[in-house]
Amino acid sequence: SYELTQPPSVSVSPGQTASIPCSGDKLGDKYACWYQQKPGQSPVLLIYQDNKRPSGIPERFSGSNSGNTATLTISGTQTMDEADYYCQAWDSSTGVFGTGTKVTVL
Amino acid sequence: EVQLVESGGGLVQPGRSLRLSCAASGFTFDDYAMHWVRQAPGKGLEWVSGISWNSGTTGYADSVKGRFTISRDNAKKSLYLQMNSLRAEDTALYYCAKDPGSNWGTDSWFDPWGQGTLVTVSS
Predict the structure, then answer these.
(1) Region label for B54, one of left (φ > 0), alpha (ψ between -120 and 50) or beta (otherwise)
(2) How far apart are CA B114 and CA B96, in angstroms?
(3) What angle do CA A100, A33, B6 make, to 5 degrees?
C-alpha cells in the first residue's frame, strides 16, 4: 500500500521559517494537500492541489510538490502555528495521510 | 456556513455493530461526495471511506473493507457509516468531511470536517 512519511517533529523559533517534508513514491505525480490540527480540534485544510490556499488561510502557509517530496512551508512562524500537520494524497482512489508532524514553536 | 455534525458513537463490544450519522447543512448536500476519516486516540488520521454524490461510487480502506458500509440519504442531507464486526483497533474519533466535487478523485481534499464522534470498542 502507498505510504506518506513525515518527520515526527519540527521545532522553529517565532518569526522563522518551518519546512515540513512529506515523502512518498512519485508523490510529485499526484496532488498533495495539507491539514493543520490543533489539540482537541478537528483538522483544517491548509493547502490543496499542491500549492493552493483556501480563503482565510494566511499567506505564510505555502506548499510545493516535486519528485518524491511535498513540502509545507510556514514563513514567519507564529506561536499560534504550534499544531500537528498532516499531508494527504490519493492512490488508486484510496485516501492516504502522512504520518503527521508536530510543530513546536519555541 | 457549512456544518457537519456527527452522531452515533459510543461504547460497543467487539464483534458488535454501530451506525454513525453525519448531518449536513449550509450547502447543497447532493452536489458533493462525502467521506469518513478516523483518528485513533493519540494517533494520526486515516481515511475510512468515501461516497459519490449519487451513491454510485463508494470506496473503502483495506482495514474496513467488507465490514463497513457507507451510504447517504440526500433527501435527509445525511451521511452514514454502518460498522459491523467491530474490533478494538476500530476505536477512534470518526469525522465526516466534505469533498470539493461530486465524485472524489486524485485532486480531492477534505473541507470542512465535522467535530467527530467517538467510537470505543471494548469488552
Answers:
(1) alpha
(2) 6
(3) 75
How confident is the model over B17-51, as pLDDT tens digits? 999 999 999 999 999 999 999 999 999 999 999 99
Residue window 56-115, chain B: list those with CB within 8 Å of chain A: 59, 61-62, 95, 100, 104-115
> Would you say residue B70 has pLDDT above 90?
yes
Q: What are phi and psi of A73, to 5 degrees?
A: -115, 130
Which tens digit of pLDDT belongs to each residue from A92-104? 899 999 999 999 9
Res B87: pLDDT: 98
Which residues of A fall within a CB distance of 8 Å from B116? 42
Cα B109 from chain centroid (whole Å):
14
3-state SS string for B94-117: EEEEECCCCCCCCCCCCCCECCCE
Region A13-24: what's the mean pLDDT? 98
C-alpha distance from B13 to closest chain A C-alpha (Å): 26
- Sequential DSSP letters for A19-74: EEEEE-TTGGGS--EEEEE-TTS--EEEEBTTTB--TTS-TTEEEEEETTEEEEEE
Burial-class residue A39 by CB neighbours within 10 Å (0-12, 13-18, 19+). Answer: exposed
Model confidence pLDDT, tens digit, residues B99-112: 999 998 788 999 99
